[in-house]
Amino acid sequence: MLKVSLFFAALLIAASPLQAAEQGKWHNDSAHGYERYWTVNSTGARFTIWCPPNHDARGALIGIDIKGQRPSPDSLVRVELDHKLVKFKVGPDGYIRNDCPACSDNLTYFWHRLRSSVRFKVQFEDRRYAGFSLKGVREVTPHSVCASQLAHNSQ
After folding, report:
1. Tens digits of residue pLDDT in 94-131
2. Model-level pTM?
3. Residue 114: its H or E element
4. Domain count, the chain
5. CB-based contacts of 137, cutoff 8 Å, min separation 6
C-alpha cells in the first residue's frame, strides 16, 4: 500500500507544470501545450481560459465547469463583470470557442473587463450559476489576450 501511495505521489509531482504562477485565487500554468489561466471557487466551480501555443486569441478556449458539468452544447453562457453582460455561444463539445472574428472581439472585450472588474458571475442556460473571485487576476493574466505570461512570471 505504501508503494502504491508513493507511486501516485511521484506521478503527481512529475505531472505538475514546471512553471506556474498563483496570485490570490487565480493561477497560470501550462497543460497539454496550452497556457491556461484558471480559478476555482469555494463550491468547486472552475473557470479556465486555454490559450494556444501560438498565443493567437482566435484559438483560445474557455472551459467552465459548474456542479461538475460544462454547459450544454450549443447553448448560451452569460458572464457578468461589474454589471456588464458578455454572452458566449458554447460549441458542440461544451467549450466556448473563439475562432470567428466576432468571437475573437468578444473575447478581447471580456478579457479587458475581466482584468478591470470587481465582480464576476457566470450563468448557464439551464440556470446553473457560479460566482468567482477576481483576486489576483490582473497579476496572473497578461494585458493582451493570450500573450505569454509564463516567461514573465518565471523572472
Report:
1. 999 999 889 989 999 999 999 999 999 999 999 999 99
2. 0.82
3. helix 101-116
4. 1
5. 23, 24, 26, 37, 39, 114, 115
